[in-house]
């Protein structure tokens, strides 16, 4: 490499690659530090009954505000943490805190935590989950765990065994981002699952395109036939919501149309506000 420098100097491209590499190393070091000092935070996005009358669950979404760069999206830092081998530290932190936060909410509201494929590669997750429940006093009936299709690629039998054990202890298992992975429908029947979360890409054009709507309705019917509950993610508009309700195409709705991710205390406040909302007086017809 010193030879090529002697010949022509390093190119702009190489310099840029070095710059990006250094940047990434710095971000990794900062992430390691944030995780070690419990510097991550959680925002919770409620899942509502489709008519908006009640919050049933809230999803814990990891947040990292970098001291200089500001908020780093979880899609970025979760991937980094997986590469660095520290995702289990994040999962543990989120599980412990999410269970404690859930205990501050009305007790019909559950909390949902995302797991990485890495978390399901060994049995440690069983101990971590029971520690989080024991520490907080939360009933397993109020804990949901979300896995993605990518969790099932390697070691499907081992993953299945871990999920079965979690589910046998009363925890609810959801498959997240349904429809974006390799989407073999057959695993819906054989995995120990309770909920499918329909990815927001399924909602694209459902208002305009009848075929897209059919695809969504068919998928939902199939899942229902298998006894699964449906959560639809990323519902943004009143039109999308109306369509889902018209065809009874979802049980729960999670999306900006009802609420973005919010701080823990706002989950209870939001539920309180919904509960206080008095039904509109009926219009007399005479
Ligand atoms: P996800 O689990 O599918 O979470 C839903 C994502 O969709 C969240 O993004 C949420 O803010 C966003 N979202 C919700 N409603 C709407 C909507 O109406 N419109 C649009 N456009 N987006 C909406 P977020 O918080 O950026 O998280 C991204 C992903 O990062 C999550 O996708 C999840 O895969 C991962 N993630 C977040 N926290 C954790 C964690 O603690 N552990 C693991 N393993 N992954 C996490
Ligand atoms: Mg999720
Ligand atoms: Mg999702
Ligand atoms: Mg997603």
UniProtKB/TrEMBL annotation:
<feature type="domain" description="EAL">
    <location>
        <begin position="24"/>
        <end position="275"/>
    </location>
</feature>
<protein>
    <submittedName>
        <fullName>Diguanylate cyclase (GGDEF)-like protein</fullName>
    </submittedName>
</protein>
